[in-house]
Structures are given as C-alpha cells and as structure tokens.
C-alpha cells in the first residue's frame, strides 16, 4: 500500500516516524501551496532535501561566495562544470580542492535541517512516499538522524508561537548605528554582521547556515537592544531614487563648464547611479511570489500548470528579461536570471 495522503489527516511527525522506524529508503514528496519539497531517505535517515522554490546547489555557492570561502571566478567555473556534468556543486568543490569536505557538510546539513523544520509549519498539503534506490554521493555522504530532526522540529514549533507574526522571511533590517551596551553573543554577532538593509531574513538564514527559528529569535534580541530596525521596501526605493536624482544633478551641474571629455566621463558615471540592484532583486522576488500564486490558481482551475508562463502573464523581470519557467512531472520551476541574464549563476532569483 502506497504511503500518500493529506497532511491534514496525517501529520509530518507521524510520516517521519513511520519512515524512520521502518528504515525506509526512497523519496518523500510534500506539495504545498508555495513549494514542492523532496526528502531523500536511506534506511530511514535523511540524506538530502530538494526544494522547487530554493535550489540548494545555488544557495551553497552564494553562501560560500558571501562568506569569502571561494572567489567569484571559481564559482563560475564550478557552475559551468555542473551544467555540463550534472554533478552537485558541493562534490565539484571538494574534488577541485576549493573547499574542505567538512565545511560543505556543515552548510548542506544546515540547509537540510532548515528545510525539514519549515515543513512543520505546513498545515495543508499532500505527501507521497515512493520506495526507490537512492544513489550515495561518496564525496558528500550526508546522513542526518531523522529522529533528532523530528524532536528538533517539534521543539521549534512549540517555541515558535512566541515570535510568530513578528518576523517574516521577507522582512528587511538595517543597523541603527547605536553601539551595543553589552557584548553580543556569538549568534548575535554573526546575524548582526549580515544585517545591511539589503539582505532579508531568508537571506540572513542562508548566509549564517542557522535554522530560521534561531535567526528570527536572534533578530528579535537585536531589535530589543535597538541595534537594528526594520526597513520599509518602499522607503528604501524612495531613498535610493532620491540619492540617484541628487547624484545626477550634481554631476550635470559640474559637467556644464567641463571639457567634452569630462562630460562624457561624468555621463558614464551617471549610468551607474541607478537604484541599487538589491531594489530590483526585491521587486523580482515579489513578482515571482505573485506568479507562483497565479500558477497555483491556474492549476486549481485547469487541473495542471500551464505549458508556458504567457498563459497567465507576459510580465518581465526588473532587468526587462523574461522569467524562466519550466513545467515537468506535475511541478514547475520559476526564476529570474538577475542582472547578468544568465541562468545558473550566483545572482539567480527564485
């Protein structure tokens, strides 16, 4: 008998316990309104997690790049090899000697843990477990204790109520400029270092490699200490546009008596006084969320996702490029290629 049904009738905790105690090997697919997640099991232990909304390989590259463990040129080379061979980025990095295996394990284990724990917040959705062989990645060889993750998830669900509604994954924070009255804890110092008015909460979670509950709780602590403050995205955009306008005018005022060569140079600089790319990245992520909701509505009405995105919208991303949309096996992927316009690079937005 197949293990499938509704999360309303059979919760995630019960499903994980069943797979763990029966030492099952296969894939557990969980489908919700905003995402479709596959958990990979070998003899009851979790060995991988795949999200349609957030591609772990790309997240791994971004985290390593942001933390300074690899250079952009190395990441681009690895991404090219990944495209050609289909090998996971983590394995390529280890084979090339660019990153130690232990660090890759730590980051990927954190991502899997975060993915599993966020599933405990799902109240609606469907699940299906398919028994099948799972290939073992010799370079990575990840294996997480399902029972431990289960207990950790239940603990966090129990504690989450105290911060629920105060912080969301798309909230932006910036530093207030005040000095801390007392030394920051290790977690506070790390989370604080990634608060810059550009990284939303989900990005901070990625960069720290910590679970969303711990990061959210730490952000609340920093808020209480008045070291950070939330940022209205509209305000950020207006400030950037005001700075841009002032910059243009100052340059044009200066260029009036300047030589033709200087004027050309200043005009070149003006081109770069556009609102920062993070404004466009935010707009892209908002539009992707809207498109995802429209795609789910389309599926409800028509029984399947549309073959092309044009069936629901012809909108382009903030860089005037089409969103990349694919549908296969009853699921879809949707992304913006970001400022460089190339899919599979570090600036892709999901």
Q: Report the β-strand fraction as a percent range.
A: 5-15%
User: Helix count?
Assistant: 12
Helix coverage percent: 40-55%
In whole angstroms, how far apart are the ends? Answer: 36 Å
Number of strands: 9
Widest sheet: strand ordering: 1-5-2-3-4
Report the mean per-residue pLDDT as an integer: 78
Rg, Å, rounded:
23 Å
Uncertain residue ranges: 234-241, 243-276
Number of domains: 4
**Protein structure class:** alpha+beta
Shape: globular
Major sheet characteristics: 5 strands, antiparallel
Order of helices and strands: EHEEEHHHHEHEHHHEHHHEE
What is this structure, in a nutshell?
This protein has 350 residues and is an alpha+beta fold. The protein is built from twelve helices and nine strands. Helix 7 crosses helix 9.
Structure description:
With 350 residues, this protein is of the alpha+beta class. It folds into 4 domains: 3-55 and 68-160, no CATH class; 172-231, Winged helix-like DNA-binding domain superfamily/Winged helix DNA-binding domain (Arc Repressor Mutant, subunit A, Orthogonal Bundle), CATH 1.10.10; 233-271; 279-335, no CATH class. 47% of the residues lie in helices and 14% in strands. The chain has 12 helices and 9 strands. The protein has helices at 12-21, 56-66, 72-85, 89-95, 101-119, 146-160, 186-193, 201-208, 212-224, 233-255, 260-271, 277-302, and strands at 3-6, 26-31, 36-42, 45-51, 126-131, 172-175, 228-231, 324-328, 331-335. The strands form 3 sheets. Strands 1-5-2-3-4 form a 5-stranded antiparallel β-sheet, with helices on one face. Strands 6-7 form a two-stranded antiparallel ribbon. Strands 8-9 form a two-stranded antiparallel sheet. β2 (26-31) and β3 form a beta hairpin. α1 runs antiparallel to α6 and α5 (101-119) crosses α6 (146-160). The longest helix has 26 residues, at 277-302. The radius of gyration is 23 Å and the shape is globular. The two termini are 36 Å apart. Mean pLDDT is 78; it is low at 234-241 and 243-276.
